[in-house]
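S1.2 Input.
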Amino acid sequence: MDKTQAKEIRRHLLAIERSLRKARAAIFELDKEERQKFSEPLGDLEYRLYFDMLGLIYAQHPELRPPPEPPTISSDLRWKDVKLPKSASEADLDAIIFSILTSRQQKAARVIGTAMKHCREHNLPINDEIFGARIEALAESGRIQGFGDLRCWGHSEVKLND
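S1.3 Output.
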């Protein structure tokens, strides 16, 4: 594929991206049960679009890749300020986090997203900011390794201790 073809395909894929964002906003307005039905398939579509389709274009034409986003803080919530619901404990959160972590570095955002999926599947009322705060606390205590500013989920990584 030449650069002109790649630009044309990318233009159409970015139009799909805008439509998916509108769909996500509309789905967010649904009740919890309906929202859960759409959440995973929509996430799969977004993954395929960003990593498979656009990834193919950027692999062949890296000059078309958008500039990287500057690191932004995803949450300032600190673990000491977290109030867990009665249906979940610190040990529950740790078990979820440790089941996701590996000896390889992973984006904090990915770990949090996977933890949130687990919570949805098990009807645990925990939000992403609570997981972000817990991951930061685990890294500060030396129970896991953190790389970068863990408040910036998309620009930091975590892994199990060696």
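S1.4 Remarks. The mean pLDDT is 93.
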